[in-house]
Design goal:
The complex is a heterodimer of chains A (about 270) and B (about 290). By secondary structure, chain A is an all-alpha fold. Chain A is about 80% helix and about 0% strand. Chain A has a single domain, classed as Orthogonal Bundle (MetI-like fold), CATH 1.10.3720. In chain A, helix 2 packs across helix 10 and helix 3 packs antiparallel against helix 8. Classes of the chains: A mainly alpha (about 270), B alpha/beta (about 290).
Amino acid sequence: MSPQTTLNRWFRSFWPPFVAVLLFIGLWESAVRMFHIETWILPSPSVIAQEASRSAGSLWDHTLSTLQLTLIGFAIGSAVGIIVACALHLVPLLKSALYPLLILSQNVPTIALAPLLMIWFGFGLLPKIIVITLVCFFPVAVSAMDGFAQTDRTMLNYMRMIGANRLQIFRKLEFPHALPSLFSGLRIAATYSVMGAVIAEWIGAQKGIGYYMILQKSAFRTDRIFVAIAIIVALSLLLFLLVTLIEKLVIRGGRRSGQEEGGETR
Amino acid sequence: MNVYTGKKTREGAAETPGPGRAVGSDASALAPVKLELDGVRKSFGSKRKPLPVIDGASLQVREGEFVSLIGPSGSGKSTLFHLIGGLLRPDDGEIRLDGRIINGERGHIGYMPQQPALFPWRTIEENVVLDREVSGAPRRESLEEARRWMARAGLSGFEQAYPHTLSGGMQQRAAFVRALLSPHGLMCLDEPFSALDAFTRSEMQAWLLDIWEETRRSVLFVTHHIEEALLLSDAIYVLSGRPSSVLRRIEVPFPRPRREEIAESPEFLALRRELTGLMKEEQRKNRGKRSE
């Protein structure tokens, strides 16, 4: 594939959503102006943009703080997810015992758990990281386990026929085979982790976008809340792209998730 | 690689015996038995209601012999392979490799499955050495050996390519080289060409014939393609329908090195007719059994 066609394809898939977003912002702006909506109810995009540039300095600190928390939480949460998935896959008894519990645990809302964690672990970094870990690890663990379970039967059969042991089968076949699936879990976890960080900051923090939002809410600064939301979206997107980039570097042989498995014979 | 080559007397079997009669060439009678199945039985299903699949299969593959297994579809050929590979344990009977019982033991055979089953995240070269890697062979040696055989298989230039960029025939050749590089003496090929189109298939048969005659590994080859079996094999075992047992062993008398032209000889046609008749009969019996 020449870079020309790659660029072309990228451009073609890029412009429709881009135009849609532009139209939406234009509609928003004109609606606010036309109906004279108060700024504290719904600020127009231009007002939000002005506010963003005005308070850029203090926002930068908050953003960095949230980004740091997110990255630490995402790394720990994903690692826990991968470890749990491997353990459950390699020990079938563990899987049958814990898998239903894992699903059940996802019905406990994080937002309800966060105050409890603050009570138990104080207002430091630890309870916040636990919150992010809790939201991150589930999509990672489930997608990795799905990937392991969907290992190609003929390849598995081949490995058994040539006498590969359990660990060899896992290391040489099941794990690399599950990578595309694992990465789609990681992408979801990346966006969740930003949300987890913000929720953790709502509950108790002296810094960060979540903390900033709580402050501005009490002051009825709707415009600043919108700025915070824009930053959260940008952070999520950034992490999403980061994971996609790592995936491109890690996965070989033309089989990224969301892509067709190449080759006419397969 | 340990390639068996001490088999020069075989070419001497020039006199063509009557078709269909079991004729043991004295060369194969001298070579030691590589693999032997002796009264192997296997049933699936519950203890109270067993479903017999293999009912007393006995066969032999001698050192450096190319032996085919043919039988009607659903005659448990794959089950037989899984038994030899140690994925399944026979209920009764013995599987011996080099005289040692290997019932339920894995890791004694080289294997080529129906689909190439190349790992898409490995380059062709990395795929080809997989069996050796699993057996713990030194990597650099394996890669050198791999490159040599890949060149022989017409895969040079594709060492660093990923499998999805190769055609079906090339993928199968890579899968064959992978089995060939296996450190184990016996190669089991499970209908390796069944997924290929007719033209590629006959090309692959000629290629396999050529490369096998050079290496003379002990091969057990499963197929339901009669001409393919006749062209390639020293001996053919015909399996009955389910529950399957070995109906008979047919020696294929054509001298080596063989060429595809033998397919037009009257002996070949006579053997083919005989085998086709046997298979048809089995298929019919099988159908009768099923409709009961």
